Each structure stands twice: as C-alpha cells, then as structure tokens.
Amino acid sequence: MRLRAALISHIYQKGLRLSCSARQKHTSGEIINYMSVDIQRITDVIWYTNYIWMLPIQLSLAVYVLYLNLGAGAWAGLAATLVIMACNIPLTRLQKRLQSEIMAAKDNRMKATTEVLRSMKILKLQAWDTEYLQKLEALRREEHNWLWKSVRLTAFTTFIFWGSPAFISSITFGTCILMGIPLTAGTVLSALATFRMLQDPIFTLPDLLSVFAQGKVSADRVAQYLQEEELKDDAITEVPRRDTDYDVEIDHGAFSWELETTSPTITDVNLKVKRGMKVAICGMVGSGKSSLLSCILGEMPKLAGAVRVSGSRAYVPQTAWILSGNIRDNILFGNPYDKEKYQKIIQACALTKDLELFANGDLTEIGERGINMSGGQKQRIQIARSVYEDADIYLFDDPFSAVDAHTGAQLFKDCLMGMLKDKTILYVTHQVEFLPAADLILVMQDGKIVQKGRFDDLLKQNIGFETIVGAHSQAIDSVINAESSSRILSTESQKLADSDDEFERENDTDDQVQGIIKQESEHDVSQGLNEKGRLTQEEEREKGGIGKTVYWAYLTAIHGGALAPVIVAAQSFFQIFQVASNYWMAWACPPTSATTPRVGLGLLLSVYLVLSIGSALCVFGRSMLVSLVGLLTAEKFFKNMLHCILRAPMSFFDSTPTGRILNRVSSDQSVLDLEIASKLGWCAFSVIQILGTIGVMSQVAWPVFAIFIPVTAICYVFQRYYIPTARELARLSQIQRAPILHHFAESLTGAASIRAYGQKDRFRKANISLVNNHSRPWFHNISAIEWLCFRLNMLSNFVFAFSLTLLVSLPEGFINPSIAGLAVTYALNLNGQLSSITWNICNTENKMISVERIMQYSRIPSEAPLIVDDHRPPNSWPKDGTINIRNLEVRYAEHLPSVLRNISCTIPGRKKVGIVGRTGSGKSTLIQALFRIVEPRVGTIEIDDVDLSKIGLHDLRGRLSIIPQDPTMFEGTVRGNLDPLNEYSDQHIWETLDKCQLGDIVRQSPKKLDSTDFYCSCRKWGKLECRTEAVVLPGKDSTEAKQCPCPR
C-alpha cells in the first residue's frame, strides 16, 4: 500500500517537473496507464516475494519425502519437476515480451482516448466522431491481437500446471517399474500426495515468473518516465529584491524548446525591466511573444545567456486554466480568504454582475475545465486569481483576447493600471489601444526583439512598429468599409437607455431582419445552479449485491452463453479423469509388497497414462475456451461502452470528469481483459474440485457428510458476512481512484501555472490526500480478505482433523486401507479447496464490479441519429444559408434552467452576421444550438427551410464548419490536424496554409506537413489550425464562435 502511494506521488510530482520535450513523449493517457496499470503490476510483485524462499523449501521437502518412499525413483520425479520448471523459462520470456507489446498498445489506445475525450466537442462539431471511433477501434484491435497471444500463452501455462502431477507421477512410477522398485498402496498414495505438494511450486513458479516479468516491464516503464528530462533549476536565477532594482533581466539570452537545435526559438534577447514597469510585448502571430514569457518563467530551456528574476510571480496563460470546484476556490488558489481584498478584486475584474446572476454566487460549482463558463468568464477568473496572489511580477499572455472590448478596457484600467499599478507587469497583447500606457514596448519578430521603447518613440523610428499599428487600424477600416459597401440592411439605431455599460444598446432594424431577438435570460449554463442542480454529478455507485443481470449479461455475451456448459463439462471430465487415475492406482496396487498385485505392472501404468492424458486434454481444452470466451466477451463489452461514450450527448462530457471515463477504459477494462474470465472459471472449478473430494471421502466413510453439512453452513455464514463489506469497500476503492486521475490530468494541463505560482507543494499534498482516500478502503478490503482466510483455514483444519480421527477410529476391516489412504490424500487438499471456493466467489464478486461499472457506461443515452433516411437533405443543401429561428429555448441539461429563452429571428443567407453581447450572454450557446450540440427545449431552427431537428446529425454538422472559441490541436502532424480524414491533396493544404499565413512557418520545418514541432512553440497555433481546418473543408457554411485578431 505504501509502495503504491509512493509511486503515484512520485509520478505526479514528476509530471509537474517535466520539460516540454519530455512532456511530448508521455501523453496524459500513457501516464494514467503508469498510475493505474503499471503501479498495480509493480505492487503485485510484493505479494509474491515470500514465494522466493518458500519454493525451494517446498521442493526440497517434497523430494525428501519421495526419496523416503521410492528411493532412487525420487530422482526421476525431481528431474521431471525440473523439466517442467525449465519449460516455464522461455514461456516467461515470451510473456514478458508480450506484456511489453500489450502495454505499448494500451498506451497508444489510452493516448488516443484521452485526446478524443479532450477534443470531443470539436469532433462532434466537425462530424469526425465516427472516424475517430474507427481509429480507437483499430488501436483496440492491435491491443486485442497481443492480448490474444498472451491469454493463449497463459492457457498453455495452465495446461502445464494441471498436467504436471500426471506427467511427474507417470515418469516416476514408470522409472520405479523399470528399476524394479515395488509399488504398494502406501507408497503410491504417499507419492500422489507428494506430487500434489509439488503441484503448488510448479503452479506458483509460472505465476511468480509472470508477475515478476510483468512487474519488470512496468518498473522499466515507470523508471524511464521518472528519468525523463526535467525543467532545469538554473534556467533562471533568483535574486533577492534588496540586491537589485530590476525585477527581470535577460543578458544575451538564447532559448529553444528543443535543446539539440541549430535554430533557437528565442535568440539574442537583452532586456532589463525595472521594478514597477509596465512592459507590453507585441508582434505578429508566431513571433515569439508567448515564448518570451516562458523564458522568464523558466519553462523554455536556456541555450545561452542569463535570466535573473527578483520577486514572486503570477502568470495568466493565454488559454484559461480552471480547476474543478467553485469560483472562490479558483480565485483564492490556496491563499487565505480576505473578504475586503476579495470584493475589490471581484469588482476590478468585472465579475460582480456574473456572480449576481449565479444562484450560489462565487460558491457556484465550475465544471471540468470550466465548461459551464464562457471564455471571457474563465479568463477573468484567472486574472482575478493572479491579482489575489499579490505577487511582485505579473506575466499576462494576451489576457484580453477572450473578452469584449468594453470589458477588456475595464480590466486594463482597473486591474493592470489600478490594483497592480505598483507591480511589475509584462503583458502580451494584440490590442493596440493598450500600448500607449506601457513604460516599455517590445516588438517581436522571428524570435527576436527587433524594437523596444515607448509608444511615441517607436512610431517616430518608422522601422516596423507602425506596421503593427497600421495593420490593426486597416483591419478595422476594412471591416467597416466592407460592411458599408455591401450592406443590404438599412438600420436605424435608436438609443433606448443609458446604463453603466456603454456597449449595452439595442438596434431596431427594418424588414430585412424579419423578427426580433427576445432573450429573457442572457446567461449561460451557470445561471440558476443550486445544490440540486449541479452540473457535475456524483459518480454513479451501485448498492447491494452484484445483480444477477450483470452475471447473466457477462455469461451470455458470446453465443448466448452456449460455450459455458462446454467449459463446465470439460472441467468436470478433468476432475473425473483425475479422481479415476488416483482411484485406479490405489485400487490396483497391493497393500504390501508380499501381496499379489491385482493387475500387471504394464496394464497398471498404461491405464494410468490414458487417464492422465485424458485429464490433461480436458484441462487444455477448458483453458483455451476460457481464454477465448473471456477475451471475446471483454472485446464486446469494450465496443459497447466505446460506442455509447462517443455517441453520448455533449452534456454527458460536460457533467462527467474525464478521469471517470478514463478509469473505466483503463483499469476496469484491464480487469475484463485478463481477470474476470479466469475468476469465474476458478469459481466453477473450485466447486467441482470440492465435490470430487467430498465424493472420494464419502466413499470411505459416509459420516463425513455429517460434518460437511454444518461446515458448509458456517462457510455460507462467513461468506454472507464478508461479501457485503468487501463489495462496498471495492466499490469505494474504484470510485476513489477516479479523483486521482482527474486531479492529475488537471494538474498536468496547468503545470506551468502551478510552477509559476509556487504551488507545487500544495498540489503534491492534495495528490497525497487523494491517494490516501483511495488507500483506506483498499487497505480495509485487504484486511477483510485476511479476516476471511484466517477463519476458513481454521475451519478446514478442523474438518481434516475430524475426518482423519474418524478414519483411524473405524474398526479393522471396515474399509479398504488403500481407499482410506486415498481419502486422506484428498483430505489434505481440503483445507486449500474450502478456502479457495469461498475466496474465489468473494473475489469474483469484487471483480464483477468492473463489469457493472462498464455496463453503466453502456447504457448512456445517445444523441440523435447520425443519419435519418426519411429526412436526408439535398446534396446542394444549404444553398443560401438563410437561418430561421422561432421561439428558441435551450438548456444544457434537464435539471438545469434554460440559458436561452424566446429567441426569434431570421438571418438572411450569404451574409456576414455578427453576434455580439457581453461575455456570458449566450453567444456561444446559440452557435451550439445551430449544430445541435445542445438540443432546443422549445422552438425550431431552420436553414433554407429544412428543420434541423428532423435531419441526422452528420447531415447537419457535415454541411457546416466552425472555428471554435477554444482552440484544439491534436497531437501529431500538421497534416493530421488539418485533414484528419485524408481527404485532400498536399497542394490544397499548402494553399490553405498560405491563406491563413501559416505556410512560411510550416516550410521552415524539415518535415514540412509531417512536422510535429509546434506543440510547445505557440499556443495561437490552435486557433490558427482551427481556422485552417475551416478553410480546408470546402462546401461548408462557416461559423466562428469568437472574434480573433487573425485574418481569415
């Protein structure tokens, strides 16, 4: 338990220290595999460490007993045992290689699954969900192929285990016959009991080797991850504030995301920022503005020069990073609550009105990644977080890009120039209006500072800065001119009311705009949240016993369960053959060496060999069938779950943390792949085994039944007492694992912010707390197992003692001594069998919780059909793009209030239409309603007289294109991001990149379209890629969810 906790904690802490290049090697899905699968396999090794010294002792004792009974024939038994053990060595090596391939395939699947879940909205918007479903299925097929090879090898190993007693005994008895060593009933029965003793080390050895092989593979993977490159501590030098007047100094700095490169990302930087200065950083997209901030934070590896920083830092990244929880916790970020200071910051960050609209104010829950907040709200929350930090140095990466002009101006005035007036601030911006207030302006181009100075001085220099200012003005003028020249709508503006916000005006339009927009509720999903209307619901947890439907669904998943009776029959015949072979040897061998044998030695050995071979074939067939059926069943459950997840409505992903889903597709699916079938098989086999033992013992003395009836009742009582506790503990343990994965995924996303704020220690403690929450039910579950095993062992010992006493107290001649000896031989195993049957039933029920959890996600309500055959739109649709909205009312979930109400309007086709409003007013929600990401509660939306609610989702989304508010980049190549379906030529992609001003940047990379070097270099790549995707896909109506400073 402590090893597990320590490893998870180390993996988590390593994730917060990984360099960007190392971060690209290990995706979130891979690291989650380290936490959930690899750590489990490493800790499994601990359970087997005692066998390292137990196996030699068991083997030595067994050989010694054989030597006492059979003399030199014992060495044949030892040789046969060593041969079987030697066979396990190549099998173990092969299993180790297969485990490496399985884990690699699982990593690829988890990597892709994590990316799909993270990008689910864009996949649905672009109608790519089916294609990515096929990609995930292809990755699963690759994993399935390796799993099939592994389970076949496991089945063969099982065959060796069950067949080993027959093989060893045949070799031993055959050698004794050849050497003329007499075989009496006593020596045979003693030898058979010893062979059963040898079965344990033979059985344990492959398990031991397999566990150690799996543990070695997992340990190597975790070790490789823990040895990955970290951010260098000497990237920046901390200078005490009393020793310098400069808060930031960079001398001849050169930086690059890749250490081994000939072209640094940032080069020849010389910068000195005095205490209290306001420094603006501007430049074209991709010029290195965000990278310069990363250099100051120590995020980008330093190639040359020196970076000195004096004071604490606060960082506002370009993409808002929001933690699950309430708004107040996101703003406080671990700092103590100061009401007066807090209220001032809320007002300065323009959050007062937003909090008034929330039912619970600043205690309103924020969903995962802030999904129930608008982009502007998320940005203002993280700005408020930075202000509350009261740091010495503030780094803002384009903080005003997600808010409207009025709110941006207020933030700049009240925050940067108000509450932070005495602080040192470096801010990246594209808004020219914020440049004159800066004490120093840095103009970036191609990773260099090409100009610096004050606003007026830079304009007078006339060497490039005016190009940026002019481009901004020209862009605004071109929009105004284009609007006035192509305007077909005669508008007549009338000021209805003056308010505190100058931008809140309404315009009356003429007949071209047929209708008016009436929005009674201008807020997003956050409005009206209360304790009964939480967006993120608690994880569903079944109560009581595992339902019969769960078992039935699993057993009948393949061929309606027709193979289950075949498996039971194979095991039953194995038991019959095994009992018959032992019975034959006990009956046929003479009681003493002076007694005449009942059959000849040749016949004795031949019959025994036939029965042994029959039992071995039965167990081989049973093992193969269990492996085959188990893997096919796991595959079917996985496909059902995967289809349901990817066809789930967006509301499911909004209300379900990614960690919960990943927990099911990783840990729970791994249990189905490798454990459930064998556990259920062992339950059946344990029952059959103990029935065989009881049958043999009852043939000797029927009074044995008298003790078995109360013993069975006692076992049943123990089982009924143990199972409810163990089951709920197992459920709690499973549920408590998801928050660990979720917290890790969140922390990994915001690692730069956590480091900048100096919060690594607090997040480490939070991780440890979550690990402890998971460890508590896990530890008590193990304790409950030990409680059960102790009582079962005591009970088994009592039964054996009673049976043995009964047999020796019977009068002479009452029973055949040979058969009595056989009964004692079987009674020796009664202890383990009785414990095994109860333990297997209880353990299986615990493992079936994974089946139960996967079935929960196989019943997720689906979105509307992708294709509706009776309502297929024409191929030319949409032709004009006229949008009619009538009485539209939208809400994100049944238990949440409506976020759009009574919207009615007509938008003419082939026109450029802008949707404006304050952040959080519902602009993005209206766009989502067009794509049916959220379904209308009331009202209709028509495009060219086609009711969107009646056509299939792919017919709708496949004809529209969108540039989403939140940029998305898939890990992989530039080509894969722009054309994931491989539908367009390289020429078309290059033309599109040139239109979006990305062509020259991509051509600089040696791999061109196959380059993967842009993940760390520029966050704006995501938005530009999304714009390029919209241009790549011809024949689609385009929708943009947020205005952006980049040209189309």
Automatic annotation (TrEMBL):
Region (Disordered) location: 522-541
Span of domain ABC transmembrane type-1: 1-214, 566-846
Coiled coil residues, start to end: none
Compartments where located: Membrane
Domain ABC transporter span(s) in chain numbering: 248-471
Membrane-spanning intervals of the chain: 45-67, 73-91, 551-577, 607-632, 704-723, 788-810
Family to which this protein belongs: Belongs to the ABC transporter superfamily. ABCC family. Conjugate transporter (TC 3.A.1.208) subfamily.
UniProt-recorded name of the protein: ABC transporter C family member 13
Native source organism of the sequence: Triticum aestivum (Wheat)
